[in-house]
Each structure stands twice: as C-alpha cells, then as structure tokens.
Amino acid sequence: MFDKEVYVRRRRTLLDIMTAGADGHPAESGIVVFPGNAEAPQNYRGNDYKFRQESSFLYYWGIDEPGFAAILDLDSGDECLFGNDVDIDDIIWMGPQESVASKAARTGVPISAPASDFDKAVRDARAKGRRIHFLPTSRYYNTLRLSELLEVPSEAIRTVAPVDDMVCGGCRYHASLPLVKAVISMRLIKETCEIEEIDKACEIGYLMHTEARNCCRPGVLEQDIVGRMEGVTISKGWGVSFTTILSQHGETLHNHRHDGVITPGNLLVIDAGAESNTHYASDFTRTLPCGGRFSPKQKDVYDIVADCNELAFTLAAPGVTYRDVHLKVAARMLEGLKDLGLVTGNVEDMVREGIAGLFMPHGLGHNMGIDVHDMEDLGEDLVGYDDDQRRSPQLGLGSLRMARRLRPGHVITDEPGIYFVPALISRWKAEGTDKGMVNYGRLESGYLDFGGIRLEDDLLITEDGCRRLGPHRLPISSADVEAAMAD
After folding, report:
1. Which of 30, 94, 166, 347 is 20 to 30 Å apart from 313, CA to CA?
2. What is d(CA 59, CA 204) in angstroms, rounded to the nearest whole number?
3. With b meaning 16 or more CB within 10 Å and e meaning fewer, what string describes 245-274?
C-alpha cells in the first residue's frame, strides 16, 4: 500500500475529471461505486483461491483485503469505505484485526460503514434516480451483486454503454463509459511510485527466468522448471502475474501444458511474469535451445526476432504510435524471412498485405501495470487505441492490443515473435491468402516442425525515448544465451 496521500490524490483527480465534463459531454453526476473482490471457494467454503483484489479498487482505495466496497459521491464529493469489523468467531481463527475505520483512515477516507450499507446506499441512489457509475466487472461475484442491486441482466453489468444509453432510476444500467475513460486516462500514465513497483516485479521476473534457464537441461521435466520459477515469485513477491507459458511447442502461442521432457534440438519458449507484493506486474519472454546451443537454422530465425526486439526498443518514444512501431517491426521481420527464402516480393507490399501475420499472428505488445494486460477488463480497444485509431482486420496487426500514440509514463511490452504454425500455413496455401508472396515449398520442406520463437522485454516510455524496466536484463542475443546456458 502506498502513502494515503497517493489514494486521496487519485480519488480527487477522478472526481475532477468526472465532474468537469469533456468531449462535448456534460459534467457527470450521481455516485461511483467500487465493489472490491470477495474470497472465492475452490471447492468448499473455507478452502479459497488465493485472494486477488480488483485492480481499480486497489488503485483508488488501496485496501488489499476481501469484503470491501466503496462509493465516491460526484455531487457532494463524499467518500465512504464499506466493510465489516471482525467478531469473536473471526478473532478465534484470525486473531485481533484492525478496524474498518482505521483501515479507511490509512487510505484517507473519512467515513466508513458496514458492508451491508453499501447495498442500501446503491438502492437508495437508484430510488432517487441518481446516476450510478461503475466499471465493467470481471469477477462473477461482483457481476451478480450489481445485477441484483440494479435489477438488470448480468451482461449489462459487463458491458460499456454509450453515455446517452445510461438510464437512471429505471430498469437499464450499463457500465459507465465516462468512468471507464476517466480511469483509463489515469491508469495509463504511471506514477513514480508505480514505476518503482514495476521495477521490483521485473527484478523478480529476472530471477524466475534465470532459474528457468539454469534448470533447462536434457531430461528435466517442464513441470519441474515451472515449479521452481513460480517458487521464486512466491518467495520474492505475490506470485505469478499470469499463468506461466513454458513449452517446447512454441508455435502454440499460449501453451499452458507442462508435461514434456526437455529434449535436445527443441526450443523452449518461456513467457512468464511476476507480481510485486503491491500487485504490479512484469512480463518477460525468452526462448532457449534445449541442448544449450542453437542449430544454424534456429539461430537464423532467432537473430531476426532479437533484431526486431531491439528495433522496437529504438523506435518507442513519445509522439510515436505503437501501431507504427509494430509495422516497422513487421517490415524488418519480413526482410529477414526474405533473406532466408521464405517470402518473396517487395517488403512494403508484404507489410501492406499483412503477410507478417502468417509468422507473427499477435501484436507487438500491450499495456502493463497493476494487471499484466493492464485494464483490458475495461475494453481492449478503449485502453489500447486512441479515438482516431481503428483496429485492423489483418491477422497479426488486428491482434495489436496497444496501438496508441506513446506518452511518457506508458508501460508497454516489446514482444516480437516468429512462429511456424502448420495448420495456418496449410490454410493460407489453400486459400491463396499470401498472394504469391510465401514460399510454401521451402516452409514445408524445413520449417513445419520448427516451433516458434518469442522475445519480450518491458518498456517505460520516457521524455526522450524509453528504457527497459528492471535493474537487470536477461541475456537475449543468441551468443549471450548460449554463454549463459554454458555457465
């Protein structure tokens, strides 16, 4: 938890944004509700999943415990934190606990109330015809809770509606677009205290990937490597920032199976990150030769990806759109693949026709912060695209999660990759998607069993460019990776 002044300032800024009016819309009124997450049983009550607080609640209110909610009144400026003090039964199992009023004071909230009063306050506001602003929910508990309070289908609670489609005091509510935009505008640009926490998460990520590299030896179980990696994250922070991807089938982008045995000649893709104890994330990817050295063919492709990773780093700067960075990386990738005889034709034409999507069917990167894919629960296009941008229908470019014009304080990932997906290659060939620009004969004769390569770093956009986050960088050049594995 940060100093209480951080949370007081954030809530005051949110109030100012919501009540100022912008983009031709009038100032907002009513209340903003923040339901925090509750504990979720794995299979019976008392045996719960590890608790993770709702990220926007954590951002504005700082309380990292289950059973809390909060309201910000846009008309009066009042704030209230809702939660229950413990009783004797709780004390028997948990010991004495800090009061809700004391927790509210630590986050700068002058008023607190029992948890049941949150429901009463929402119903009272609804009865008076006041606007009730809330963010799209990701947890089913909060979806059902708001659905019951507002008497609307659960899908409406998870859907952002245009401003003029919010009906107050009636039977229809949706997640609030003005609130979503206000939160995005604040959380996109990281404060100094947040950057410090992301640096901590990146150091843990460095340690977990180093552990994985040290364990990557022929005959070792993938599950053993994953367990050792995740042990690092628990001993140094909160745990993993997302489900670990570790696979010798890198052509499957999000392969979560860990039942393989490290086999010489294979490539091991490790896409994994850690959370600091304050829940800020890291996200790194490295690709390792399972026998300690790359084959000539593997090295050729690997070096193209490493070159693309470095190019993105040199291009990412204020005023540049990350969409343009993606496209320049795609061009560099196609140049390298052309040198290998896998594609043919003018590189600019190939970029325009989306040929890079056959080899990199994902975007170059995404926003990162309290969530590893920061705020995508609020709407991927709202978070990742400026108002004057539209998502491309092309494979690859169309999956770009962060296309915005970069500003100092943005935290993004830089993760190019090259993959050889047999089913996708076969489909493009059958449908003629490549327009004669792909050498299928060469692909089919030597690359269908190649797998994939991805290399990822985390970047902070600065006033004059960007820097990689974390005090240490994992080896990334093919020579440095081989040297590190030899050690």
Report:
1. 347
2. 22
3. bbbbebbebebeebebebeeebbbbbbbbb
Element (H, E) at 404: none
Of 475, 440, 428, which Cα lies nearest the Cα of 286? 475
**Which domains does the chain show, CATH number per domain?**
4-187 (3.40.350.10), 192-486 (3.90.230.10)
* CB-CB contact of 137 with 143 (8 Å): yes
If you ran DSSP here, which 8-state letter would residue 251 be given?
T
pLDDT digits (tens, 9 = 90+) for 23-32: 556 799 999 9
Q: Whole-model pTM?
A: 0.95
Determine the pLDDT at residue 86: 84
Tokens of 50: 């590890």
What single letter denotes the amino acid at residue 174? H
Provide the CB-side half-sphere exposure for 329 (13 A, CA): 34
**Per residue in 4-44, pLDDT tens?**
999 999 999 999 999 997 655 679 999 999 999 999 999 98
Burial of 141 (0-12, 13-18, 19+ CB in 10 A): middle
Burial of 83 (0-12, 13-18, 19+ CB in 10 A): buried
- Say if residues 143 and 188 touch (Cβ distance below 8 Å): no
Which two tokens mark 485?
A: 């594995």
